[in-house]
Write a structure and sequence with these properties.
The protein is α+β, with helices and mostly antiparallel strands. About 50% of the residues lie in helices and about 10% in strands.
Amino acid sequence: PASPSAHPTAMAGPVSREELEALAVRWADPDVSAEALAESGGVEAVIKMLGINVAKGLSAEQVSAMRERYGSNKIPEKKRRSFFEHLVEAFEDETLLILVAAAALALVNAVFVSDDSGDMIEAMSILAAVVIVSGVASTLNYAQDGEFQALKQLELETVIVTRDGVQTRVLRDELVVGDCFEVRAGSKLPADALLLPSATAQGLTVDESSATGESRASHKGPGALLLLAGTRVQEGAGRAVAFGVGVSSTYGRQLAKSQGGEDDDGPTPLQERLDVLAKLIGWFGLVAAIATSTALAVIALAGDTSKLTDVSFWLGDMLQFAVVGVTIVVVAV
């Protein structure tokens, strides 16, 4: 017999919250959405699974039942972290730690070894870079936390839904699974939803950068029916049926992570890509720095290994070689 996840229409009775959330995670994954939706039988099968009438929308009794079974569209309020907490977190970044180590080494060389004033300027420059990078990162993250308070105001915005055969406006946080709502240019999508087939020919494009990291607008139509909560409609219009609301939506899961879930402060896809690139550049610079410093030391010791027991060699030449490596790291980072 077919599994429930593959053929939800074969389920006996209403699909449970856990079953719907399991399906919704796949439907809301842009990489497998079309395939997962096809496995589930398409939009029509989802409509049957939820037991709704697209033309008439939900009845008052169905709205209450949907809210009780699948939850509301409210997002729990986030506790705002202090600037100091963000500052401490900034120093957990590997790239910044490399800069701190480079600054410390350059400072030791400038104060205790070198007589060149330029070395002190170099050390102070690296320290300034550490302060700027950590300060900017902390400020941006602190400001992002503040933006959540503004985003909470979105719950006061209204959405046009069809209920009991009549179009009506409801607050965003009153939307429930199974609601059929209007999608219009300039609006922010209130829930994870599937575009209804009748709306696919109206040139709908959505900015999904906040959810997927993709800078180009996503064109919706046959084979691309997925609409993600928190993304913004750029052009077109249509109707959609909600399948993921509140903390069960893509937007809700991202906010839940930043509020202390199991994957606390999980990065967005764009942040993940930038983090990987930054780490690659940083580690490449570190490897190049070590290789260069080692090569300089080998050249200095060639033919005269007695320098290995000379303290002045270690405090002078070797430290200078290390500073050269530091310069390479700083440039790379």
